[in-house]
Protein backbone atom coordinates (compact mmCIF):
# COMPACT_ATOMS: atom_id res chain seq x y z
CA UNK A 1 0.00 0.00 0.00
CA UNK A 2 1.47 3.36 -0.99
CA UNK A 3 1.70 6.24 1.47
CA UNK A 4 -1.01 8.11 -0.47
CA UNK A 5 -3.43 5.17 -0.19
CA UNK A 6 -2.54 4.86 3.50
CA UNK A 7 -3.29 8.58 4.07
CA UNK A 8 -6.63 8.30 2.22
CA UNK A 9 -7.57 5.31 4.42
CA UNK A 10 -6.72 7.27 7.59
CA UNK A 11 -8.74 10.27 6.36
CA UNK A 12 -11.87 8.11 6.17
CA UNK A 13 -11.61 6.61 9.66
CA UNK A 14 -14.29 7.68 12.20
CA UNK A 15 -13.13 9.90 15.06
CA UNK A 16 -14.39 9.68 18.65
CA UNK A 17 -13.53 12.30 21.26
CA UNK A 18 -12.20 10.90 24.53
CA UNK A 19 -12.80 11.74 28.19
CA UNK A 20 -13.59 15.44 28.80
CA UNK A 21 -12.43 16.75 25.42
CA UNK A 22 -14.49 19.12 23.28
CA UNK A 23 -13.84 19.76 19.58
CA UNK A 24 -15.07 23.14 18.29
CA UNK A 25 -15.11 25.09 15.03
CA UNK A 26 -14.14 28.69 15.71
CA UNK A 27 -15.90 31.84 14.57
CA UNK A 28 -12.70 33.88 14.69
CA UNK A 29 -12.36 35.66 11.34
CA UNK A 30 -8.90 35.71 9.86
CA UNK A 31 -7.53 39.04 8.72
CA UNK A 32 -9.19 42.40 9.11
CA UNK A 33 -12.62 42.84 10.66
CA UNK A 34 -15.19 45.58 11.27
CA UNK A 35 -16.40 47.05 14.54
CA UNK A 36 -20.12 47.37 15.23
CA UNK A 37 -19.80 51.03 14.22
CA UNK A 38 -18.39 50.05 10.82
CA UNK A 39 -14.75 50.97 11.50
CA UNK A 40 -12.27 48.71 9.68
CA UNK A 41 -9.81 47.11 12.12
CA UNK A 42 -6.64 45.77 10.41
CA UNK A 43 -5.39 42.27 11.18
CA UNK A 44 -2.19 43.74 12.65
CA UNK A 45 -4.03 45.81 15.29
CA UNK A 46 -3.25 44.85 18.87
CA UNK A 47 -6.37 43.67 20.67
CA UNK A 48 -6.66 43.14 24.41
CA UNK A 49 -7.48 39.75 25.82
CA UNK A 50 -10.79 38.80 24.26
CA UNK A 51 -12.83 35.61 24.54
CA UNK A 52 -14.24 33.97 21.39
CA UNK A 53 -17.34 31.99 20.42
CA UNK A 54 -17.24 28.62 18.66
CA UNK A 55 -19.61 25.83 17.68
CA UNK A 56 -19.23 22.43 19.34
CA UNK A 57 -18.63 19.70 16.77
CA UNK A 58 -17.91 16.67 18.97
CA UNK A 59 -17.63 15.82 22.69
CA UNK A 60 -16.04 13.03 24.74
CA UNK A 61 -18.08 10.58 26.82
CA UNK A 62 -17.33 12.41 30.11
CA UNK A 63 -18.54 15.83 28.92
CA UNK A 64 -21.72 16.76 30.82
CA UNK A 65 -22.62 20.38 30.04
CA UNK A 66 -22.30 20.79 26.26
CA UNK A 67 -23.59 18.93 23.22
CA UNK A 68 -22.71 19.08 19.53
CA UNK A 69 -24.35 22.15 17.99
CA UNK A 70 -24.03 24.30 21.15
CA UNK A 71 -22.09 27.58 21.01
CA UNK A 72 -19.39 27.98 23.65
CA UNK A 73 -17.24 30.85 24.90
CA UNK A 74 -13.52 30.17 25.38
CA UNK A 75 -10.13 31.88 25.61
CA UNK A 76 -8.46 31.63 22.18
CA UNK A 77 -5.01 31.85 23.78
CA UNK A 78 -5.57 28.55 25.64
CA UNK A 79 -6.18 26.28 22.69
CA UNK A 80 -4.76 23.39 20.72
CA UNK A 81 -5.51 23.56 17.00
CA UNK A 82 -5.96 20.45 14.88
CA UNK A 83 -6.79 19.83 11.23
CA UNK A 84 -9.30 17.08 10.49
CA UNK A 85 -10.11 16.26 6.86
CA UNK A 86 -8.86 19.66 5.73
CA UNK A 87 -10.88 21.70 8.28
CA UNK A 88 -9.26 23.52 11.23
CA UNK A 89 -10.72 22.89 14.69
CA UNK A 90 -9.80 23.71 18.28
CA UNK A 91 -9.47 20.94 20.86
CA UNK A 92 -9.95 21.75 24.55
CA UNK A 93 -11.10 20.36 27.86
CA UNK A 94 -14.63 20.99 29.07
CA UNK A 95 -13.28 22.91 32.09
CA UNK A 96 -11.68 25.47 29.72
CA UNK A 97 -15.10 26.62 28.50
CA UNK A 98 -16.50 29.80 30.08
CA UNK A 99 -20.14 29.73 28.88
CA UNK A 100 -22.62 27.72 26.82
CA UNK A 101 -25.35 29.12 24.57
CA UNK A 102 -28.02 26.65 23.45
CA UNK A 103 -31.78 26.66 22.92
CA UNK A 104 -32.17 23.68 25.25
CA UNK A 105 -30.99 25.84 28.17
CA UNK A 106 -34.13 28.03 28.11
CA UNK A 107 -35.99 25.70 30.46
CA UNK A 108 -33.02 25.13 32.77
CA UNK A 109 -33.06 26.75 36.18
CA UNK A 110 -30.15 28.91 37.24
CA UNK A 111 -29.65 30.68 33.93
CA UNK A 112 -28.49 34.28 33.97
CA UNK A 113 -31.34 35.63 31.85
CA UNK A 114 -28.89 36.89 29.21
CA UNK A 115 -29.79 36.41 25.58
CA UNK A 116 -27.45 36.36 22.60
UniProtKB/TrEMBL annotation:
Superkingdom assignment: Bacteria
Keywords associated with the record: Chaperone
UniProt cross-references to CDD domains, sorted A to Z: cpn10
Keyword Chaperone among UniProt keywords: yes
InterPro entries attached to this UniProt entry: Chaperonin_GroES, Chaperonin_GroES_sf, GroES-like_sf
Keyword Chaperone: yes
Pfam families: Cpn10
Alphabetized Gene3D superfamilies for the sequence: GroES chaperonin (2.30.33.40)
Protein family (similarity comment): Belongs to the GroES chaperonin family.
Function description: Together with the chaperonin GroEL, plays an essential role in assisting protein folding. The GroEL-GroES system forms a nano-cage that allows encapsulation of the non-native substrate proteins and provides a physical environment optimized to promote and accelerate protein folding. GroES binds to the apical surface of the GroEL ring, thereby capping the opening of the GroEL channel.
Subunit composition and interactions: Heptamer of 7 subunits arranged in a ring.
UniProt protein name: 10 kDa chaperonin
Organism: Streptomyces thermolineatus
Amino acid sequence: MSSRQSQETHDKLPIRMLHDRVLVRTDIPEGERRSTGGILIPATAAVGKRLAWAEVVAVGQNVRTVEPGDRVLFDPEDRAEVEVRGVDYVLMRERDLHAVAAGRLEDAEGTTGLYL
